[in-house]
Amino acid sequence: MPTSSHAFHYAIAIGSNRCGRHGRPVAEVAAAIAALAGVVAVSPVVASAPIGPSIRRYANAVVLIESVDQPPVVLDRLKAIERAFGRRRGQRWSARVIDLDIVLWSGGPWCAPGLTIPHIAFRARDFVLGPLLGVAPDWRDPLSGLTVRQLRARLRRGLPRVDQADTRP
């Protein structure tokens, strides 16, 4: 268990494609950022096309936070913020007021029921890698060894995806 002198860093992906009590999706993202404790860096908000059945465009950002807490505790806080914003579990990839995901943390890989870090799909999502590039370009994926900058360049050039099962650099 870390002591208060040992803080971890977390990259949190934030997305919204539905109006909520704070307003349009961009305002929901800004309000979610304000609700997070320990924010040390914030990416610009970018617009992205939806994945899956939703037809509404997303507002996306990535923040870096600092916390002495282990991933399950941080995840519980993120889920509490989602509930406070009116997020309800439902259809996968449907419209949502807010979505908060742990993408990376400075402790390396983490795997437990309900939580896998690095986020299983972040390497294939430009709406995560783009904002992440703005706040942590040199952060390395602990599984592939590639930096965020390298992962985004691979994605943009259409190179083969680097999955968790394929950790060759």
What does this structure look like?
The protein is 27% helix and 23% strand. The N and C termini lie far apart (31 Å). 31% of the residues are buried. The model is unreliable at 164-169 (pLDDT under 50). Strands 1, 2, 3, 4 and 5 form a five-stranded antiparallel β-sheet that branches. The chain is α+β, with helices and mostly antiparallel strands and 169 residues long. It has four helices and seven strands. Strand 6 (110-112) and strand 7 (115-117) form a beta hairpin. The longest helix has 14 residues, at 71-84.
Name the descriptors.
27% helix, disordered C terminus, 169 residues, alpha+beta
The N- to C-terminal Cα distance equals: 31 Å
Query: Residue ranges: pLDDT <50 for 5 or more in a row?
Result: 164-169
Helices, by number, come to: 4
Number of strands: 7
Assign a percent range to the helix content. Answer: 25-40%
Largest sheet: 5 strands, antiparallel
**Mean of the pLDDT scores?**
87
Give Rg in angstroms: 15 Å
User: Helix and strand string, N-terminal first?
Assistant: EHEEEHEEEHH
User: What amount of the residues lies in strands?
Assistant: 15-25%
> What structural category arises from helix and sheet content?
alpha+beta
Q: Which of globular, elongated, flat, extended, rod-shaped describes the shape?
A: globular
